[in-house]
């Protein structure tokens, strides 16, 4: 069994819980509260900048020139292409540039981005790869699930089309193939660390969506340092 096959098997219940989140169910049928979606879009735009940085560090640690190209391009896509998607949503849902720039990271976004950044700098290349995989893979799988449930004239269709689309899914398959190839060269201890990193990031994916739906920020009396 490959690393990605085992990772998916180990985390199957977590994925099903992610699919079942009200955010994703209501996104599919077009009834998601617009405040929750705007909350998500703002936080996701902040998140993608940190994710792009982590991908760039991953590229610097890569074992081959092809892997450097793959993750450098992925970092560019995370920031440039998906920023364009978020910009269009912000205009459509009347989120001003000032509102975006003055909205701090939520607890969930701060936790997730801090985890990815710390892992990117402090862990080995294989473990960094595993920590970055859920953002690629789970989004693709959720997108494919939602596209089969979406309703006509869904206001969130552009999001659904992006993550269920062939281009994004081909990129995911490239990343999965790279991780499986690298994992096959690793010792058992490293592979287990990869699994732990994958699960931690997958849990944070769940938390990110749930936090958006609940409109969570920071507890009263606390603020981001």
Automatic annotation (TrEMBL):
<comment type="function">
    <text>Catalyzes an amino-pyrimidine hydrolysis reaction at the C5' of the pyrimidine moiety of thiamine compounds, a reaction that is part of a thiamine salvage pathway.</text>
</comment>
<dbReference type="Pfam" id="PF03070">
    <property type="entry name" value="TENA_THI-4"/>
</dbReference>
<dbReference type="GO" id="GO:0009229">
    <property type="term" value="P:thiamine diphosphate biosynthetic process"/>
</dbReference>
<dbReference type="GO" id="GO:0005829">
    <property type="term" value="C:cytosol"/>
</dbReference>
<comment type="similarity">
    <text>Belongs to the TenA family.</text>
</comment>
<dbReference type="InterPro" id="IPR050967">
    <property type="entry name" value="Thiamine_Salvage_TenA"/>
</dbReference>
<dbReference type="InterPro" id="IPR004305">
    <property type="entry name" value="Thiaminase-2/PQQC"/>
</dbReference>
<dbReference type="InterPro" id="IPR027574">
    <property type="entry name" value="Thiaminase_II"/>
</dbReference>
<dbReference type="GO" id="GO:0009228">
    <property type="term" value="P:thiamine biosynthetic process"/>
</dbReference>
<dbReference type="GO" id="GO:0050334">
    <property type="term" value="F:thiaminase activity"/>
</dbReference>
<protein>
    <recommendedName>
        <fullName>Aminopyrimidine aminohydrolase</fullName>
        <ecNumber>3.5.99.2</ecNumber>
    </recommendedName>
</protein>
<dbReference type="InterPro" id="IPR016084">
    <property type="entry name" value="Haem_Oase-like_multi-hlx"/>
</dbReference>
<feature type="domain" description="Thiaminase-2/PQQC">
    <location>
        <begin position="10"/>
        <end position="214"/>
    </location>
</feature>
<comment type="pathway">
    <text>Cofactor biosynthesis; thiamine diphosphate biosynthesis.</text>
</comment>
<keyword id="KW-0378">Hydrolase</keyword>
<keyword id="KW-0784">Thiamine biosynthesis</keyword>
């Amino acid at each position: 069994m490959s690393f990605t096959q085992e990772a998916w098997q180990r985390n199957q219940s977590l994925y099903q819980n992610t699919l079942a989140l009200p955010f994703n169910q209501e996104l599919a049928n077009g009834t998601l509260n617009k405040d929750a979606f705007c909350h998500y879009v703002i936080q996701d735009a902040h998140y993608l900048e940190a994710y792009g940085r982590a991908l760039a560090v991953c590229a610097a640690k890569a074992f081959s020139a092809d892997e450097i190209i793959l993750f450098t391009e992925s970092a560019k896509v995370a920031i440039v292409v998906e920023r364009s998607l978020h910009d269009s949503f912000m205009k459509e849902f009347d989120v001003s540039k000032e509102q975006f720039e003055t909205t701090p990271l939520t607890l969930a976004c701060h936790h997730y981005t801090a985890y990815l950044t710390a892992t990117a700098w402090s862990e080995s290349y294989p473990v960094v790869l595993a920590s970055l995989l859920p953002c690629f893979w789970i989004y693709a799988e959720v997108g494919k699930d939602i596209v089969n449930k979406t309703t006509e004239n869904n206001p969130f269709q552009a999001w659904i089309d992006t993550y269920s689309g062939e281009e994004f899914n081909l990129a995911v398959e490239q990343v999965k193939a790279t991780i499986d190839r690298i994992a096959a060269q690793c010792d058992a201890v490293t592979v287990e660390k990869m699994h732990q990193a994958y699960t931690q990031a997958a849990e944070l994916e769940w938390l990110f969506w749930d936090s958006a739906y609940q409109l969570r920020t920071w507890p009263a009396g606390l603020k981001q340092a």
